Amino acid sequence: MHWFKPFMGKESAALEGRTVDIGNLKIHIRNPIAEGGFSCVYLARDVMNPSKQYALKHIICNDGESLELVKKEISVMKSLKGHPNVVALLGNAVMDMGRTKEALLVMEFCEKSLVGVLENRGVGYFEEKQILLIFRDVCNAVFVMHCQSPPIAHRDLKAENVLLGPDGSWKLCDFGSSSTNHKRFDRPEEMGIEEDNIRKHTTPAYRAPEMWDLFRKEFISEKVDIWALGCLLYRICYFKSAFDGESKLQILNGNYRIPDLPKYSSSITDLIKDLLQSSPDARPDITQARALLDCPFISINLGVVSC
């Protein structure tokens, strides 16, 4: 879901004003702040400590598939608990409502999203140091995911899913699309199922070439996140998508252009080129991608996590 899409009132604000117990937390649910197809994020306050705010994600599960996605999201967030660049899950509950089940996820509240920052900067492009600081934090989150066994692919890395934490660090969120099912799809029936999953749970502008055309029969793995990191870095630098109009043909051919302005060093532009390799085998893994951030300032700061 898009966390910071303005709430338009499509979903009933049924939880607004209620007080609920979730685990050891007692929270008062305030106004909706974002929405998705079957979910809504509310601002909430701690009843015992009213100065403490949370983001409460309410998800309606109409079938077994959507319930499994919620369980997977909770499981991934628990496995990444304590990482400074991952939005913290503070409590969760799944309630049986008869025909449906409803999930409540209490998370740390992050007031700003990266997409909001980008869209509100006008023509004030970032300095190179600022770009690397943002990108460092996202890479650190991806690094810890790819270091799990088996590696966890986020599969929906984008500016909307990067939030600014209260401590000033950038944090990755929304793990409902994540996957450990890394494979080459050979049979038509498998391809059909995977194409449907890709269509429903990934974002076209950040979707890797091997996800656009399964008939290429390339191995689909956590390397899809490396491509998405290239798209994200391009977006941070130039405030637009690398692939105009999210064109399938452009993406399959890796056809994009580095703008003349703003002018960044080869450390930035070469990194974009390395990440946006059409073949997943030609892309660096996340360890290599971090090493490619060879600016001394950033290299020192990247050395904070190891497998």
TrEMBL record:
<dbReference type="GO" id="GO:0005524">
    <property type="term" value="F:ATP binding"/>
</dbReference>
<dbReference type="GO" id="GO:0005737">
    <property type="term" value="C:cytoplasm"/>
</dbReference>
<dbReference type="InterPro" id="IPR000719">
    <property type="entry name" value="Prot_kinase_dom"/>
</dbReference>
<dbReference type="InterPro" id="IPR008271">
    <property type="entry name" value="Ser/Thr_kinase_AS"/>
</dbReference>
<dbReference type="InterPro" id="IPR011009">
    <property type="entry name" value="Kinase-like_dom_sf"/>
</dbReference>
<dbReference type="GO" id="GO:0004674">
    <property type="term" value="F:protein serine/threonine kinase activity"/>
</dbReference>
<keyword id="KW-0067">ATP-binding</keyword>
<keyword id="KW-0418">Kinase</keyword>
<dbReference type="Pfam" id="PF00069">
    <property type="entry name" value="Pkinase"/>
</dbReference>
<keyword id="KW-0723">Serine/threonine-protein kinase</keyword>
<keyword id="KW-0808">Transferase</keyword>
<keyword id="KW-0547">Nucleotide-binding</keyword>
<feature type="domain" description="Protein kinase">
    <location>
        <begin position="27"/>
        <end position="298"/>
    </location>
</feature>
<protein>
    <recommendedName>
        <fullName>non-specific serine/threonine protein kinase</fullName>
        <ecNumber>2.7.11.1</ecNumber>
    </recommendedName>
</protein>
